[in-house]
Amino acid sequence: MENVFLDIPRLYTAIAEWTACMVYILNMKKRFKGKTLAFLSLGGLLIQSFFLVVTGNVNIIWWIPCMITAVILMIGFIWICHKGDWKDAVYVGLHAFVLAEFAASLEWLLHCYFFNEKATDAVSFWMTAVIYGIVYSFYASLLKRQQLENEQLDIKGPELMATLLIAVSIFSVSNLSFVSMDTPFSTSYQGAVAIIRTMVDLGGAAIMYAYYLQRFQFRMKQELSLMQNIVQNQYLQYQMSKESIDVINYKYHDLKHQIAVLRAEESAEKRMAFLDSMEEEIHQYEVQNKTGNKVLDAVLTSKNVVCEQNGISLNCVADGELLDFMDIMDICTILGNALDNAIECEKKIQEKEKRLIDVAIFSKKDFLIMRFENYFDGELKFSEGNLKTTKTKRSELHGYGIKSIKHAVKKYGGAVNINVEENWFELKVLIPIPSKN
Question: How far apart are alpha carbons 13 and 31 in whole angstroms?
Answer without folding.
Answer: 26
